[in-house]
Write a sequence for this structure.
């Protein structure tokens, strides 16, 4: 199963990067969202899948899945949410100000 | 000695304050006493019983960099030149520079230079030597660009800076190699370890690096090009830096290190050949010039080449002649520069084509010039010091032995000297005799004020005195200098008349052919104008500089396109290539099926749906559809979290995904509609290749990492101690707020900052509308 999730992470990364290389701002944001999904899957896979019970202590069970990657992912989810929401507002503002969402047209001033 | 080196720097700190008084007292008067007293201090060392003095001061002892000062005959010769001519130049500049100039700047730079130059010739430590060496480059740069409002000054300053600093850095490379090989930073100790250096594999490198430093500083072929452009500096600077002192730093360096390299064959070859080429090229180029200072600049180049060649020969007589000529050249060239400055000052031009017949108007200047130029030409008269060293030079070229190509050297020496004779005569007769062209001159010429004449008079007095009594400077002074370079000194007595020996005939040939060439000068004009033509090294220098500019601009424009997509592609490709190459080189791929979880149907179904959804994001051309497809991926992740027994993150993922989708929907309403990609097929293919390759890399890395676990997880500790130490049963939550609470703290900060930024972005818009 780890191999399957590895492939899933790979596919998520590939589609994310394809989106990142597009011109429209929205697609780039979709790309960043996908890339964080891929990373989370990757972290989870690295922590070994289904190796035991959920990491909540219950009397009589000694075999739990690795809790550390889960803590890391939790942190990461929150951070990527923060970044994504900021990016969205930024994209909204940028397209409002510049009247375009085409990244190729956003090139700064000549005299910068 | 330490004070002698540092006092100019100390005084320089007070010059800006003193220069405020310049309406009453010319700042140069304060400055004059500095080199004057340094000269008197060092003059007290002169004597037949002089022996080297070493003074040591700690600077950075842990790195072996100490302020060690070593005064031997060679250093003594140089410090006396630096301080003596320094004093004369400062005195001259008092009359030369008007009080309306920025005198404070001028004298600060000059004193900086003086300190640096004294440091160069007195340092025993190579790194201290290098420090002062670069300080001479910097102060020379400042002095050449003194009239910074002139385009030519800035060009000359930059050129000299680039060339001399290039040489200085390469010299530092040589020094570091020397330090690595010998383990000492002291030049005297290195000389004792000459055997180790000579048997080292790095020997050619060391020699090349150090000689590059010496050649660029001393304006040797083909690095001579900066010197003529440095003539944009005020004339006192040209007289001081570019004839008597700084350009001799390279000679000093070669002389200082020749005890180490003297027996190395390539030292002889490189130094003599470059020296002779510089001599011939410099004197030939000088004949073509029409500007007085340009004649003197090329003349300096050629004379430096001659001294360099003699240092290369390395025979006792050649070394003695070199040391002698360093002294002689400083006297006559210093005076000639001052003469050129006087002519410029009194007539308003330095163009020799406009000058002529000044001898009757400026008799004293003309008299000074005649001694200077004739001494420079090496005319055989018993009261000109130039002749003695020139004859010794011929003697030295003849003493090189009969081996092969070194037989050519005397002929080249004669050719170079013939041109020297021609330009010396041209300098004098072109300026001071012939037809007067007073209507062409910007000013009405008259004799210079006496104060301006004193310095050149003293220097010319030196020319004549050394010429009349050459042995006066021999035993107490020159012997020591020559001994410092080469232990075997056999030249005990300098005499004017040696009998009818080859050097005399060479001198006579120079005078004879030179006179003929000078008289028939007009007929050769076409040749002079034609010969260097396009081969001028200035063309090459300018070409390199402008090519460098355009080339680096082209490189930058090639990848700095301003397109984010390009940067992204470059970054990803770099990561991709490095990772793949590294994995391949280290045989990093591993595959094992041990301890894998059993896949179930539901998992595979979820993964398949996610893959399809992820791919679908690329093809969605409608806003809401794109969000929904993205949402499918997000909720798929949440389901996987559930399946893999991660209740907390599953919960979080669900909530966050919902909020994100809501946010997307909110924003997408305002964002422009998604369009179909308008990229060409080629771009699409490149994008696809990069993304698929990257995805594949991630998969391969993940599988390899999963298949090669080298040690157990540390999670057992968390499982065991979650209840005991953390007081909680939900291990993930205990980790988040207890074991690794700091992460959570800053994750909260991230959220807070994001929230503030979002608010700011929205608010800013309102402010803008209010404007």
């Amino acid at each position: 199963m780890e191999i399957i999730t590895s492939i899933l992470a790979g596919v998520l990364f590939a589609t994310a990067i394809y989106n990142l290389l597009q011109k429209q701002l929205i697609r780039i944001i979709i790309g960043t969202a996908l890339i964080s999904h891929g990373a989370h899957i990757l972290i989870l896979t690295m922590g070994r899948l289904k190796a035991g019970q959920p990491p909540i202590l219950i009397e009589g069970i000694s075999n739990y899945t690795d809790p550390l990657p889960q803590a890391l992912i939790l942190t990461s989810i929150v951070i990527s949410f923060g970044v994504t929401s900021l990016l969205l507002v930024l994209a909204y503002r940028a397209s409002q100000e510049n009247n375009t969402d085409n990244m190729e047209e956003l090139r700064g001033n000549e005299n910068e | 000695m330490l004070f002698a080196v540092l006092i100019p720097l100390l005084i320089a700190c007070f010059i800006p304050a003193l220069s405020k008084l310049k309406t009453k007292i010319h700042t140069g008067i304060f400055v004059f006493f500095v080199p004057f007293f340094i000269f008197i201090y060092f003059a007290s060392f002169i004597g037949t019983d002089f022996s080297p003095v070493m003074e040591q001061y700690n600077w950075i002892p842990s790195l072996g960099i100490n302020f060690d000062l070593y005064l031997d005959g060679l250093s003594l010769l140089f410090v006396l030149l630096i301080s003596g001519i320094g004093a004369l130049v400062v005195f001259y500049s008092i009359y030369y520079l008007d009080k309306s100039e920025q005198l404070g700047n001028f004298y600060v730079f000059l004193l900086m230079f003086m300190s640096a130059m004294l440091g160069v010739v007195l340092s025993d430590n190579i790194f201290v030597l290098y420090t002062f060496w670069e300080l001479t480059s910097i102060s020379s740069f400042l002095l050449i660009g003194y009239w910074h409002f002139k385009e030519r000054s800035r060009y000359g300053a930059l050129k000299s800076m680039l060339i001399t600093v290039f040489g200085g850095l390469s010299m530092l490379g040589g020094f570091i190699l020397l330090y690595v090989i010998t383990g000492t930073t002291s030049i005297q100790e290195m000389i004792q370890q000459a055997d180790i250096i000579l048997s080292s594999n790095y020997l050619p490198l060391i020699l090349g690096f150090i000689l590059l430093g010496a050649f660029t500083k001393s304006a040797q072929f083909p690095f001579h090009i900066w010197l003529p452009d440095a003539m944009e500096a005020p004339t006192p600077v040209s007289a001081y830096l570019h004839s008597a002192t700084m350009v001799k730093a390279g000679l000093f360096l070669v002389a200082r290190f020749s005890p180490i390299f003297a027996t190395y064959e390539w030292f002889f070859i490189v130094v003599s050949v470059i020296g002779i080429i510089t001599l011939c090229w410099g004197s030939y180029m000088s004949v073509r010039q029409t500007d007085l200072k340009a004649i003197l600049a090329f003349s300096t180049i050629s004379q430096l080449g001659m001294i360099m060649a003699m240092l290369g020969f390395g025979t006792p007589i050649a070394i003695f002649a070199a040391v002698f000529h360093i002294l002689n050249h400083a006297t006559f060239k210093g005076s000639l520069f001052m003469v050129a400055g006087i002519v410029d000052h009194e007539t308003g031009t330095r163009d020799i084509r406009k000058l002529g017949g000044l001898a009757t108007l400026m008799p004293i200047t003309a008299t000074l010039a005649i001694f200077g130029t004739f001494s420079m030409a090496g005319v055989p008269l018993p009261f000109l010091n130039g002749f003695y060293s020139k004859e010794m030079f011929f003697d030295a070229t003849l003493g090189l032995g009969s081996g092969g190509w070194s037989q050519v050297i005397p002929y080249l020496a004669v050719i170079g000297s013939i041109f020297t004779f021609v330009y010396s005569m041209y300098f004098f007769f072109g300026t001071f005799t012939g037809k007067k062209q007073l209507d062409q001159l910007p000013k009405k010429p008259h004799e210079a004020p006496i104060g301006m004449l004193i310095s050149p008079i003293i220097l010319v007095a030196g020319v004549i005195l050394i010429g009349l009594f050459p042995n006066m400077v021999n035993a107490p002074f020159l012997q020591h200098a020559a001994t410092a370079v080469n232990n075997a000194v056999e030249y005990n007595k300098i005499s004017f008349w040696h009998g009818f020996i080859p050097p005399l005939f060479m001198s006579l040939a120079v005078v004879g052919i030179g006179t003929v060439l000078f008289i028939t000068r007009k007929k050769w004009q076409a040749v002079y104008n034609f010969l260097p033509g396009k081969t001028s090294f200035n063309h090459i220098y300018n070409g390199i500089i402008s090519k460098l500019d355009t080339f680096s601009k082209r490189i930058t424009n090639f990848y700095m396109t301003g397109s984010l997509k390009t940067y992204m592609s470059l970054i990803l490709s770099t990561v991709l290539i490095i990772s793949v190459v590294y994995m391949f080189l280290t045989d990093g791929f591993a595959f094992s099926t041990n301890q894998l979880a059993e896949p179930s149907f539901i998992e595979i179904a979820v993964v398949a749906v996610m893959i399809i959804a992820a791919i679908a994001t690329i093809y969605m051309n409608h806003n809401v559809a794109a969000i929904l497809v993205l949402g499918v991926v997000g909720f798929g992740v949440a389901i996987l979290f559930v399946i893999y027994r991660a209740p907390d993150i599953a919960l979080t993922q669900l909530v966050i995904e919902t909020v994100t989708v809501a946010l997307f929907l909110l924003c997408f309403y305002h964002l422009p509609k998604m369009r179909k990609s308008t990229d060409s097929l080629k771009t699409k293919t490149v994008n696809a290749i990069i993304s698929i390759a990257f995805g594949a890399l991630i998969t391969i890395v993940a599988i390899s990492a999963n298949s090669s676990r080298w040690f157990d997880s540390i999670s057992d500790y968390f499982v065991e101690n979650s209840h005991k130490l953390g007081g909680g049963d939900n291990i993930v939550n205990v980790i988040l707020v207890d074991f690794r609470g700091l992460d959570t703290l800053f994750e909260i900060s991230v959220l807070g900052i994001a929230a503030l930024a979002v608010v700011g972005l929205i608010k800013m818009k309102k402010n803008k509308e209010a404007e």
Notes: Chain A touches chain B through 85 residues (CB under 8 Å). The two ends of chain A are 52 Å apart (CA to CA). Chain A has a mean pLDDT of 85. Chain A is about 65% helix and 0% strand.
